[in-house]
């Protein structure tokens, strides 16, 4: 079976989405399918990777978005997809690629849309008083355009189920349990940023408004105000980095900004070496970086407004503002066995289970033999 996947907003530093696409594609290939990923780039390219064939089509760069590009040439996208003769289409974009579902239906190709972000949540953050009405209308159109919606958590599914969409597949993402491991804990790395006896906090994620990274600075300030010697390492780039750096300097907070870590092993070592990870984004539909922290044996404080409490289970705590983030971090720092609990929770999310779930949602299986319906 040939599974053609389309996504926007994929760059070398696009974090969770890029990881999910890579791991799922590789899983589809191992299951006996042929996976093709199409995403925007500076120019046309074709490369063969573990996740299958990867095609970039020229797409304009979105201003002030850190290098993200979009597939806007519908004719070229449609011609490329048609030439690939897909058996299934999987789309990872809630807005600008919604038209692909209608194209697939006209051409008799079963289609799936993966809800990697909460349209309802994003519009409530930035969209004004009628945000929910707008989100409901757009979500209803998405559900009508695609044969199946896949949500990675119950929280992500809720915005569709609220408007009567019944057949939403819930399939959690996964984590590389070999790469992200407590065994990567490195005392030398800790000493680079934290003095003996200091608590090392880590924030991994894009520094953009919807991620609310300033809450991590507030959490650090709250901890220190209660006499807890703590430092914060921030891994990730984005438009808010200069503002956050200036804020940290003004408040005299010990924060180290690393930018985007290109090496996955470097990220895994950082997460394993931290004491607590902070995930302040209020509209996360899953939170892959937080799950990677758990796999590395590091408990997480997450925003109570999003999906992460569902993912963390008993391996972390949730909060809504800076002082409560700081309090939750203090509780985790004092909790015995916290690293073993975190690792045990992550073990419940292998990528193999995610691959099986996504294949089942699109009407395939690990034999890769399901014909076009």
From TrEMBL:
One of its GO terms (molecular function) is glycosyltransferase activity. Keywords: Glycosyltransferase, Transferase. It holds the Pfam family Glyco_trans_4_4. Residues 196-312 form the Glycosyl transferase family domain. The keyword Nucleotidyltransferase does not apply. It comes from the Bacteria. Residues 15-174 form the Glycosyltransferase subfamily 4-like N-terminal domain. GO terms for biological process: carbohydrate derivative biosynthetic process. Coiled coil: none annotated. PANTHER family: SULFOQUINOVOSYL TRANSFERASE SQD2. This is Alpha-1,6-mannosyltransferase. The lineage of its organism: Bacteria, Bacillati, Actinomycetota, Actinomycetes, Micromonosporales.
């Amino acid at each position: 079976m040939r599974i053609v996947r389309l996504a926007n907003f994929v760059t070398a530093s696009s974090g969770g989405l890029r990881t999910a696409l890579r791991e799922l594609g590789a899983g589809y290939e191992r299951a006996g399918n042929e996976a093709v990923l199409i995403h925007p780039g500076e120019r046309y390219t074709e490369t063969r990777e573990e996740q299958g064939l990867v095609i970039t089509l020229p797409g304009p760069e979105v201003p002030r978005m850190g290098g993200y590009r979009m597939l806007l040439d519908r004719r070229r996208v449609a011609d490329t997809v048609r030439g690939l003769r897909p058996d299934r289409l999987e789309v990872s974009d809630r807005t600008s690629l919604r038209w692909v579902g209608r194209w697939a239906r006209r051409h008799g190709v079963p289609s799936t849309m993966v809800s990697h972000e909460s349209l309802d949540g994003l519009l409530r953050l930035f969209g004004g008083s009628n945000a929910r009405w707008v989100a409901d209308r757009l979500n209803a159109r998405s559900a009508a355009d695609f044969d199946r919606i896949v949500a990675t958590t119950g929280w992500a599914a809720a915005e569709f189920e609220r408007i009567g969409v019944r057949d939403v597949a819930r399939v959690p993402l996964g984590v590389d349990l070999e790469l992200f491991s407590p065994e990567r804990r490195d005392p030398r790395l800790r000493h680079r940023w934290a003095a003996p006896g200091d608590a090392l906090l880590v924030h991994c994620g894009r520094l953009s408004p919807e991620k609310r990274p300033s809450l991590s600075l507030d959490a650090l300030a709250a901890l220190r105000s209660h006499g807890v010697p703590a430092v914060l390492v921030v891994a990730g780039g984005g438009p808010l980095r200069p503002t956050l750096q200036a804020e940290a300097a003004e408040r005299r907070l010990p924060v180290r900004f690393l930018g985007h870590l290109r090496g996955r092993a470097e990220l895994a070592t950082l997460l394993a070496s931290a004491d607590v990870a902070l995930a302040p984004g209020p509209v996360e539909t899953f939170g892959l970086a937080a799950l990677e922290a758990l796999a590395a044996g590091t408990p997480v404080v997450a925003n109570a407004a999003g999906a992460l409490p569902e993912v963390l289970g008993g391996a972390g705590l949730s909060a809504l503002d800076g002082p409560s983030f700081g309090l939750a971090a203090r509780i985790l720092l004092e909790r015995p066995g916290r690293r073993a609990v975190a690792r045990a929770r992550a073990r419940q999310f292998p990528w193999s289970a995610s691959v099986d779930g996504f294949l089942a949602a699109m009407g395939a299986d690990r034999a890769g033999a399901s014909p076009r319906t």
